[in-house]
Design brief:
heterodimer, A: about 300 residues, mainly alpha, 16 helices, about 0% strand, B: about 525 residues, two-stranded antiparallel sheet, two-stranded antiparallel ribbon, 4 strands
């Protein structure tokens, strides 16, 4: 617990300090580097919240792609940042006011968080992403709850020993541990699911695509990266593929609209270079050597 | 878990996708581009090659790729013709809904795409705008549209829509030498992004107030909530969604981009825009109205009546003064959207069937008209002015006759197909007690008859221009024009088969929602 708290304060303070440096650093390259530091600290905070997936995405997408892009832009465009900053000083008051409003709003949200967070699930039988429940259940600080969650994390099909020890049907274990979940919580293992008399697994998840059952069932048993992976490649695979196609089309479109093939450019064709043969590329030319005597006689 | 055998219902999409990817690879790695490699062993020889051989190679490659794309479309069409429907209509755990309605629209989309590629490719090659990416992008756009049409989930809908849109933006600006094409692409992109944003905002409101993404789940949720503030949020979401799709199908007042994009984009691409994305947009809005917003049919009907009236009036009035035939076609398309929306304002399967009948007839009409516009070249240069049509009948009697058939059909003159389209639409309006809408529709179709008939007057009665005849028609363009003209002329002989088929599709859509 103490370690976690210390880590939180370390990450949080570093993130705030680096964020302040992003704004105040004189050299824009330094600003971007501090931005990267901020991202890393935010990723650390996500890890503390057991949201490893978000942490990884933050590092990969923001540090790996966005910040590098920023660096390129900053280095390649010749922008006079000092002039820009002169302008910024004029708007400092408005900026401060907006910041104050945001701070108050954040405080209000923080106040609400403790009271009324669990919104009613009664009227909507459908929730979409498994992550909110996941965070909710795993981020709770009570160690008992977490232990229970870990126990539920062992699906009987995966672990031979646990199957022996738990001795009950998977229904029994999930009933005892994850009380906020549906009673018919079943592990995702399709083998065991098919053996179940009432037909567990994904197939039982009702006629609606996104039922709570899937989300909850996953949430109690595995970490969130795995949970996202499991639904991403099963339930959501169509969307996953479509998103991939959208990106492919964007790439093709960018190339189509910008690539210009100019004439007279020497292009390297490696296969042709390798296929080169002395027989048809080397020409032996009979060169008559220079003969000073002949030259002189001609004269 | 999605069952593997669900995949069989995705066969057309799989064919399209594999075809698009392999054509992309062939296009990227096949020789025969304008630029032959200079370095290396073969390089010396290719620089020696005269321009003509390189041009022939490029020609062959272009035709190979366009032909491949048409083959892929034909295969996908064959795969979707059996119209197999799964039990319960839903596949992939409710992500997609496969029904006869979706199949019918998919068939229209595939036919429209295949023919617009066939009729326009030579034009693109002559304009030096033919790139191998264009057929590939068209195929990707079709994949997006089929997903939109079949979507049973807001995320799938949005992804399909974006897939289609991204491809269309690139297609609009594909003529890179032309400044107007770039302008068209940029305009289309900015307004398309705006409308996608509106649509997405509507979707997020819908999700926020119902907690569901699947259409049937949202509908259930709406049905179980009675009273309270929830319905207002959902209602606002619906308005945003209708607005977003209104942009896509260019219904007035969301039509501003249409004339500029239609005029700026290369003509074959304009043809594609005029025919195909409209079908997909209509299918999406029909499905949403029936399956999601069934509870709000009164409110949706009010919006649709306004959209429909405005589209018909603006489309027919603004077209009168146009000089460019592409702009005229843009306004004509807007007014046709208005007529199509009449059917959606009526809230039953018959009215929807009328809209489907209209859309199905709209496809050959527009394809044929654009075939004639594509044939308007003189000395290899495309013509765009209406005055260029003057005296067409003297030089090209058959082309003139075909164009006259298309114009009469668009105006809705009785024995032609366009009359039946309008007839069913207006009858559905009267059946649903939308008398005002029917009156406005008839009046605006009288107005639009003026400019359609003006074109016929230009063709037949005006003195021909001094510049001489048009270029001879390319063979495939002549074939497409002839085929579509035949369809429109002889539709009167067997309207029942087609109308029954479409009515089945529409009733299937309505059955699914009950």
């Amino acid at each position: 617990m103490i370690l976690e708290g210390l880590a939180f304060y370390l990450f949080a303070l570093l993130a705030i300090a680096a964020g302040a440096m992003v704004v105040t650093a004189r050299n824009p390259v330094h600003s971007v580097l501090f931005l990267i530091l901020t991202f890393f600290n935010a990723a650390g905070l996500f890890v503390l919240l057991h949201a490893e997936f978000l942490a990884m995405i933050l590092v990969i997408v923001y540090v790996g792609a966005v910040a590098v892009l920023f660096l390129f832009v900053v280095m390649m465009l010749d922008i006079n940042f000092r002039e820009l900053r002169q302008g910024a000083r004029n708007y400092a008051r408005i900026g401060l006011a907006v910041g104050l409003v945001l701070l108050v709003e954040l405080a209000l949200v923080g106040g609400m968080y403790g009271h009324n967070f669990s919104y009613t699930q009664s009227n909507n039988n459908i929730t979409v992403s498994p992550t909110p429940e996941n965070n909710e259940s795993l981020a709770s600080d009570e160690p008992e709850a977490k232990l229970a969650g870990d126990e539920a994390a062992l699906p009987p099909g995966n672990d031979a020993t646990s199957q022996g020890t738990t001795q009950g049907t998977p229904q029994g274990t999930s009933k005892s541990t994850a009380d906020e979940n549906n009673p018919e919580n079943l592990p995702l293992d399709s083998e065991t699911a098919e053996d179940e008399p009432n037909g567990g697994g994904f197939n039982a998840s009702g006629q609606n695509g996104f039922s709570t059952e899937v989300g909850d069932r996953i949430s109690a048993s595995i970490n969130n990266t795995e949970a996202i992976g499991r639904v991403l490649y099963t339930k959501y695979f169509l969307m996953f593929q479509l998103a991939g196609l959208v990106l492919l089309v964007a790439m093709i479109g960018a190339i189509t609209l910008t690539l210009r093939q100019r004439g007279g450019v020497r292009r390297q064709v490696i296969s042709e270079q390798l296929a080169r043969h002395p027989a048809n590329s080397v020409h032996l030319v009979k060169v008559t050597p220079y003969d000073p005597l002949k030259e002189s006689t001609k004269k | 878990m999605p069952h593997l055998h669900d995949i069989i219902y995705l066969l057309p999409e799989i064919i399209l996708l594999l075809g698009a990817l392999s054509l992309l690879m062939i296009g990227a790695f096949m020789r025969g581009e304008k630029i032959a490699p200079l370095a290396g062993g073969g390089g010396v020889k290719t620089t020696m090659k005269d321009e003509a051989t390189i041009a022939v190679a490029a020609n062959r490659k272009n035709w190979l790729l366009a032909g491949g794309a048409m083959l892929v479309i034909a295969l996908a069409l064959m795969a979707s013709l059996p119209q197999t429907v799964p039990d319960g209509n839903e596949i992939l755990s409710g992500m997609l809904r496969i029904d006869r309605f979706g199949h019918a629209v998919k068939i229209f989309i595939l036919i429209g795409t295949g023919f617009s590629l066939l009729v326009g490719w030579r034009w693109l090659m002559r304009a030096k705008a033919a790139m191998f990416e264009l057929p590939v992008l068209m195929l990707f756009a079709v994949i997006g549209m089929t997903q939109m049409v079949a979507a049973n989930n807001l995320i799938v809908l949005f992804l399909g829509l974006e897939l289609q849109n991204l491809a269309l933006y690139v297609l609009a600006s594909s003529q890179r030498e032309s400044r107007r094409s770039s302008e068209a692409g940029l305009k289309y992109f900015v307004l398309g992004a705006l409308s996608s944003g509106l649509l997405l905002y509507g979707m997020s409101l819908l999700y926020g107030f119902t907690g569901a993404l699947n259409y049937d789940a949202i509908a259930n949720n709406i049905a179980t909530q009675n009273g309270g503030v929830m319905p207002y949020g959902i209602l606002i979401g619906m308005i945003f969604i209708i607005t977003g799709i209104g942009f896509k199908i260019s219904a007035v007042p969301f039509h501003m981009w249409t004339p500029d994009v239609y005029e700026g984009a290369p003509t074959p691409i304009t043809n594609f825009f005029a025919v195909v994305p409209k079908l997909a947009g209509f299918a999406v809005i029909m499905r949403l109205l029936v399956e999601v917003f069934g509870e709000f049919h009164v409110e949706a009907g009010q919006i649709l009546v306004v959209l429909s009236m405005a589209s018909m009036v603006v489309g027919s009035l603004a077209a009168i003064n146009q000089r460019s035939i592409k702009r005229l076609m843009a306004y004509s398309a807007i007014s046709h959207v208005g007529y199509g929306l009449i059917g959606l304002a009526g809230n039953n399967a018959d009215a929807y069937a009328a809209t489907l009948v209209y859309l199905g007839i709209y496809v050959p009409m527009t394809l044929g008209t654009f075939g004639c516009i594509l044939a308007m070249t003189r000395g290899g240069k495309p013509l765009d002015e209406l005055s260029d049509l003057a005296g067409l009948a003297k030089y090209h009697p058959w082309l003139a006759a075909a164009l006259a058939v298309f114009m009469f059909s668009m105006a809705g003159i009785p024995p032609l197909a366009g009359f039946f389209a309008k007839f069913y639409i207006f009858r559905s309006a009267i059946d649903n007690n939308l008398i005002a809408l029917a009156v406005v529709g008839v009046l605006s179709s009288v107005v639009s008859a003026y400019y359609y008939c003006r074109i016929i007057k230009l063709i037949y009665f005006d003195p021909p221009q001094a510049k001489g005849a048009l270029d001879p028609l390319p063979r495939e363009v002549a074939w497409v024009i002839g085929l579509t003209a035949m369809v429109i002329l002889w539709f009167v002989l067997w309207p029942n088969g087609y109308i029954d088929w479409v009515r089945h599709a529409a009733t299937d859509l309505w059955k699914g929602s009950e």
